[in-house]
Write a structure and sequence with these properties.
Blueprint: H1 4-8, H2 23-49, E1 52-57, H3 63-73, H4 84-100, H5 103-122, H6 133-146, H7 150-175, H8 177-195, H9 197-217, H10 219-235, H11 237-245, H12 251-257, H13 267-287, H14 292-318, E2 325-328, H15 333-336, E3 340-345, H16 348-378, E4 383-384, H17 387-393, E5 401-402, H18 403-415, H19 417-425, H20 429-443, H21 446-451, E6 454-455, E7 461-466, E8 483-487, E9 492-494, E10 506-510, E11 514-516, H22 518-527, E12 530-535, E13 553-558, E14 580-585, E15 603-608, E16 627-631, E17 650-652, E18 675-677, E19 698-700, E20 721-723, E21 744-746, E22 767-769, E23 790-792, E24 816-817, H23 820-824, H24 828-835
Parallel strand pairs: 7-8, 8-10, 9-11, 10-12, 12-13, 13-14, 14-15, 15-16, 16-17, 17-18, 18-19, 19-20, 20-21, 21-22, 22-23, 23-24
Antiparallel strand pairs: 1-3, 2-3, 4-5, 6-7
Length: 847
């Protein structure tokens, strides 16, 4: 026998799931409990009291049947008399039983009744059956199994099975493996979200913002009220005295006092809230992919409804079979001498009453199930909108959810809507950004930021912040900061407090979604001089970039790893002070927006990723351009558009595919050109017309395919820097001695075996790069280069160094690049001179 506790445990769900039980599930829970107890009660009574009592029927249909009924109902073993009143009672009893018997036995009992009515006049004694007690017990048991209907015997067990089916159906979605894990996770997260201190703080901040807005709206009304009050006070001194004596609080102070206190979060609370945001994000992405929970709940509700219909149908069918009197015909005449027995079932009356109660509870249960189905199909439970919560909580970005996530929230709303409202805080990116900002400001204090401030190569104070959730507020307290670099900041919000950074001139934004408030933008427009932007798509360029009216230098760096084409930056018309424009991208033509600043732009740098730059006609409009760099643009010739840039001073065509430079003669019209960089190309020869570039001071031809240097090259008397490194030169012409102003000369990585003695007439040489050649000896005339500060002789075929190196007083050991054994072979006094420290700046790479 099962105890009530053991059976009820089948229905008990975990207490943590109570928030997912709407009122109808709770109502059905108690109804099922009542039905369960009813089934157990009937079963217990049936096991202890269920039995039938039977008496035999004689073969005579008149006096014998009358005597049998008289003896079984009213006679004892010694009493042989009966009163006429008892016979009347028996007649009435049999009349009632006739109504509950089947139609086949109605006629027989009518005959018996009539015989009983007539027998009172003729017979006053009952009929003995002469059966033993054991025979009566045997007949009772036989007739219990033969004559008693099966529903009378098995009703409590069927009721118990029905109730268990209903209970299992109610809890199946809590137990099914593919849904229980999601439900448990959801309930766990929901409870933590409800109890999280960040939830309270977020709601407090919202209430504070709403109070502030109401205060702003009422400022006008308050000012009018104060004016009226002042007028009244002037007119009535007594009123003024009364007002001063009363302890009333002004309305403005009251509104400020009504602002709820802000909850203070410690580090543990903030970390917990941060983890909750991540858990909610992952749970949402996991649960929104399917609607299994919704379907399972619908299926189990349908199963309960069908179970109710099944119970109702067959119970009503078999309920009429429960009667008090039954006619039994067991095949035991050879044992008892009687073939027919009449039996009474002592539990019939109780079973009928309990069955009616069970049907009533089943009907109530079924009606609730039908309502549940109506609710499931009437409302769109696979979508959940936070529209009302967005209005109340001032969090406009709380997203709408779908599928199982939406269904779970709908179920929670039936328990308490406050749960879903608080849960929505952790779906909001605005709320998450506020938490991140709170944590960021607490972690990055002014003291910590000051430790990260460095002095860069330009002798400017610089701060570099990378991969943070936002800009710490303490950054704006660094009033002496000149360069601010922000790299991969999730939400770079520049606040009006930036006005305190009066020294800020340069701003770097790498992969940052930047939001600038109006007051801060005004400050940047007035003070910012240089802006570096690195982005994946040109749409990531902030729109406020094009309104920085005092900006002088703009760097647009397109992330080439993103493999997206940069179309063009926006209009530059408002950048009236822009002097330098740097574009690092994969352009096929120069952006048309450059024409907006062509009249006052002095420097243009284009660094392509190897994409061929085709259209350059826009260069003709840049009349004031002084520096032009077209690097890695796959140019095959020098663009003709360059020849119209009369103010051009520095031209850099690095890393292109230029093979011939015959057009160089056209450079003679560029009277301001002093620097020409044709390095990292495919140039095989230098035309003799190069001598027309009489004002040229810097010429970079390194990393090409030159084999000879023409004599015309050495007619450039103003040439100071000449770099022909990493070519295929075997000889340096003696005409190199004509370059009396030469200060930097590099022939590293060629095939030189000796140097012309005329080279050492260039007494202004400060840097001489001769490494990676095949030079066998160094002339003693090296001592003529008294201004030499840097000498590279490494990886040559030298067997010694001339002692005249000691005459190069500015040359020191640190700037003498040579093998150690050659330096060790020098006289000791020469080594001592070279080892002396000097403050002279080393002149390397033409700088």
């Amino acid at each position: 026998m099962f105890t009530l506790t053991e059976v009820s445990s089948l229905y008990d769900a975990q207490t943590t799931f109570r928030i997912l039980k709407p009122w109808w599930d709770v109502f059905k829970y108690y109804i099922a409990r009542v039905m369960l107890m009813l089934a157990i009660f009937v079963g217990a009574m049936q096991l202890s009291k269920d039995q039938v009592l039977c008496l035999p029927e004689t073969e005579s249909l008149t006096e014998t049947k009358m005597q049998t009924i008289h003896s079984s109902q009213y006679y004892s073993a010694d009493d042989t008399t009966t009163s006429s009143g008892s016979r009347v009672s028996l007649v009435n009893s049999l009349t009632e039983q006739r109504e509950s018997l089947s139609s086949s036995n109605t006629q027989e009992y009518t005959t018996i009744t009539s015989e009983v009515e007539n027998s009172g006049k003729n017979n006053q004694k009952g009929h003995k059956t002469y059966l033993d007690y054991q025979q009566y017990v045997f007949i009772n048991q036989m007739c219990y199994h033969v004559a008693l209907p099966w529903y009378s015997k098995y009703f409590p067990y069927l009721a118990l099975i029905h109730t268990i089916i209903l209970m299992v159906s109610s809890n199946f979605w809590f137990k099914y493996p593919k849904t229980c894990s999601k439900i448990e996770h959801f309930v766990s997260i929901l409870g933590k979200c409800f109890e999280s201190p960040w939830t309270t703080k977020a709601l407090s901040e919202t209430a504070k913002e709403e109070t502030a807005k109401r205060k702003q709206r009422t400022n006008g009304a308050l000012s009018i009220h104060k004016n009226i009050s002042a007028d009244r006070k002037k007119g009535s001194p007594m009123t003024s005295m009364l007002n001063n004596k009363s302890g009333s609080i002004p309305s403005a102070e009251k509104s400020a006092a009504e602002v709820p206190p802000v909850t203070i979060l410690d580090k543990k609370d903030r970390e917990q809230a941060k983890a909750l945001f991540e858990k909610v994000r992952k749970f949402r992405s996991h649960v929104e992919d399917s609607n299994l929970i919704y379907k399972l709940y619908v299926v189990q509700t349908i199963v309960k409804t069908l179970t109710f219909i099944w119970i109702l149908c067959y119970t009503l069918t078999f309920a009429t079979s429960i009667t008090f009197v039954h006619r039994c015909t067991p095949a035991v005449k050879h044992l008892t001498g009687y073939a027919v027995f009449f039996c009474t079932h002592n539990m019939a009356f109780m079973l009928i009453k309990l069955l009616i109660s069970y049907i009533a509870f089943s009907c109530i249960y079924g009606i609730v199930c039908l309502y549940t189905l109506f609710w499931l199909f009437w409302r769109p439970l696979q979508k959940y909108s936070y529209k009302k919560a967005r209005e109340e909580a001032s969090l406009s970005d709380i997203p709408d959810v779908k599928n199982d996530f939406a269904f779970l929230l709908h179920m929670v709303d039936q328990y308490d809507q406050l749960y879903s409202k608080r849960f929505g805080i952790f779906l909001s990116e605005v709320s998450e950004s506020k938490l991140q900002e709170f944590n960021l400001n607490d972690e990055w204090t002014l003291e910590k930021l000051s430790q990260h401030v460095i002095t860069n190569a330009q002798n400017k104070k610089e701060l570099h912040l990378s991969k943070l959730s936002g800009i710490p507020v303490a950054v704006f307290d660094l009033t002496d900061l000149e360069v601010l670099k922000l790299d991969s900041i999730t939400e770079a919000k520049i606040k009006p407090k930036i006005q305190e950074m009066i020294s800020l001139l340069e701003l770097h934004l790498y992969y940052c979604q930047t939001i600038v408030e109006d007051t801060a933008l005004n400050f940047l427009c007035d003070h910012l001089k240089c802006l570096h932007l690195k982005f994946i798509d040109e749409r990531n360029i902030p729109s406020w970039t094009y309104s920085l009216r005092n900006l002088q230098e703009l760097h647009l760096i397109h992330d080439l790893s993103a493999k997206t084409k940069m179309i063009a930056p926006g209009s530059l018309k408002e950048l009236s002070q822009l002097k330098s424009l740097y574009i690092m991208s994969n352009l096929s033509k120069l952006p048309a927006s450059i024409a907006d600043v062509s009249s006052y732009l002095t420097k243009l740098v284009v660094q392509n990723d190897g994409t061929k730059l085709v259209t350059l006609n826009i260069l003709k409009k840049m009349t004031n351009i002084a520096e032009l760099e077209l690097q890695n643009c796959e140019l095959e010739r020098i663009p003709h558009a360059i020849f119209s840039l009369t103010n051009l001073q520095d031209l850099d065509l690095k890393s292109n595919n230029i093979q011939t430079i015959n057009e160089i003669v056209s450079f003679q019209h560029l009277h301001q050109l002093t620097s020409l960089k044709l390095w990292y190309n495919e140039i095989t020869q230098i035309p003799s017309t190069i001598y027309h570039l009489k004002k040229l001071e810097k010429l970079y031809l390194n990393n090409n395919k030159l084999e000879i240097l023409p004599a015309a090259l050495f007619k450039l008397r103003h040439l100071k820097y000449l770099d022909v490194s990493y070519n295929s030169l075997k000889v340096i012409p003696p005409d190199v001695g004509h370059l009396q102003n030469l200060q930097y000369f590099a022939v590293t990585g060629n095939k030189l075996q000796q140097l012309p003695s005329e080279l050492f007439r260039c007494t202004k040489l400060r840097s001489l790069n001769l490494g990676l050649n095949r030079i066998t000896s160094l002339s003693e005339k090296i001592g003529n280069l008294v201004q030499l500060t840097y000498l590279d002789l490494k990886e040559n075929c030298l067997d010694r160094l001339p002692s005249q190196l000691g005459q190069c007083h500015l040359l020191k050991r640190s700037s003498l690049i040579v093998e150690d054994h050659l330096f060790a072979a020098l006289p000791s006094e020469i080594k001592d001179v070279l080892d002396c420290e000097s403050d002279t700046t080393t002149f390397v790479n033409g700088t």
